[in-house]
Design goal:
D-Amino Acid Oxidase, Chain A, domain 2; eight-stranded mixed β-sheet; 36% helix; FAD/NAD(P)-binding domain; alpha/beta; 390 residues; 3 domains
């Protein structure tokens, strides 16, 4: 059996569901001409810390989608390093459970009339004179255009032979009830502990507030940007947990990988756009939910334009992503990751730890604001000052 659509979206997570919703609600594309395929059947478990930036929340609300699943508002950030801590209150967005959040977004797309084929994994993809033929575990689909929204392990990328421009990051995530050390998460603050940098990692340990079954919990984990080989991420996590009175043997760890957004990231081919983590996410933080939602809006605009004009080139999409606020931020983040997480990154880390101004600027940047030149100059002078002291 073969069905024909205008757009086939591979991946039903935030990137895929948001692309479908933007196509229908913002671009006016007929919902029944869009199909979403995903190998998982929703709701499905998804290991992730679950932070959605305020920019991501605002982007969804702009197309009439409000978060209806349980969430915790992120009320600020605390940075920890060298036995010290610096914290800044700031409305940063929300922490959700991906199992519930992803199902809500996909259900919203289905309610619009989008054809959803969850439980159907992509087996093959080939170009045809009129677009693509996709073979899933149960059927064959013809589509003029394809949006690859299938995450770090993107099957679409593998089947098309798209190279990896950068090493993938590695994470472990787990959830526990709050402990005595969780004063920041109990106040709605997200906790970033940079002490793992002294153990050879390029990243951080985190404690985020979250809700499970209506009760407060703490999502914990470790992010390793994996800029260089040879780090034992699990052992570093075990030591970080032990400092919080938690035995790693008593918790369930969920590992996963991330694909960073870097200057060499592939964003499009003829008739194809890559969205969300299939294209890449924030290299410094390892986060990608809000970024995927924003990128989905850009992708939908270009997909709709191609449908109306009969075009298939998406070079303009790749350009627009890179020059957008979210694209510029992710490219800046890739540059920062190699400097903040390097052995020579102590001045930058101390500036972030000791300067409320630097943390406030970082949070405004995280929320999608562009920093003014006076702010950049002041940050630069602070960095030079800390380098001189070092």
């Amino acid at each position: 059996m073969t069905e024909t659509f205008d757009v086939a979206i591979v991946g039903g997570g935030p990137a895929g569901a948001s692309t479908a919703l933007h196509l229908v609600r913002a671009e006016g594309i007929r919902a029944d001409r869009i199909v979403v395929v995903d190998k998982a059947r929703f709701p499905r478990d998804k290991p992730c810390a679950g932070a959605v930036s305020q920019l991501g929340v605002d982007t969804l609300e702009a197309i009439g989608v409000r978060i209806e699943v349980p969430f915790v508002a992120m009320r600020g950030v605390r940075v920890r390093w060298e036995g010290r801590a610096g914290e800044t209150p700031c409305a940063m967005g929300v922490v959700i459970r991906r199992t519930e959040f992803d199902a809500q977004l996909l259900d919203a797309a289905r309610a619009e009339g989008v054809v959803v084929r969850d439980g159907e994994g992509l087996r093959a993809i080939e170009r045809t004179p009129r677009g693509f033929r996709l073979s899933t575990t149960t059927e064959s689909i013809r589509a003029r255009l394809v949006a690859a929204c299938d995450g770090a392990g993107s099957t679409t990328r593998k089947l098309l032979g798209l190279r990896e421009p950068e090493r993938k990051g590695h994470l472990y995530v787990l959830d526990t009830v709050p402990t005595a050390s969780d004063d920041a998460p109990k106040r709605g603050f997200i906790d970033f502990d940079l002490s793992v940098l002294g153990e050879g990692l390029q990243g951080y340990y985190w404690d985020f507030p979250t809700i499970i079954g209506g009760a407060p919990h703490v999502c914990r984990g470790i992010y390793h940007a994996n800029l260089a080989p040879g780090s034992d991420v699990k052992s570093a996590l075990a030591r970080a947990l032990a400092r919080r009175g938690i035995d790693i043997a008593d918790v369930k760890l969920r590992p996963f990988s991330t694909r960073p957004f870097v200057p060499g990231s592939t964003l499009a081919q003829d008739g194809l756009v890559l969205v969300g983590e299939a294209a890449g996410i924030d290299h410094a933080t390892g986060e990608g939910i809000g970024q995927a939602i924003v990128m989905a809006g850009i992708a939908a605009r270009h997909l709709a334009r191609a449908l109306r004009t009969g075009g298939s080139s998406f070079d303009a999409y790749a350009h627009d992503v890179r020059v957008s606020t979210i694209g510029r931020h992710m490219l800046q983040s890739a540059w920062l990751a190699r400097r903040v997480y390097a052995r020579t990154g102590n001045p930058a880390r101390r500036l972030l730890l000791r300067s409320a101004f630097a943390r406030d600027a970082a949070m405004r940047w995280y929320n999608g604001s562009s920093l003014s030149w006076p702010t950049k100059v002041r940050l630069g002078l602070g960095l030079v000052s800390h380098a001189f002291r070092s």
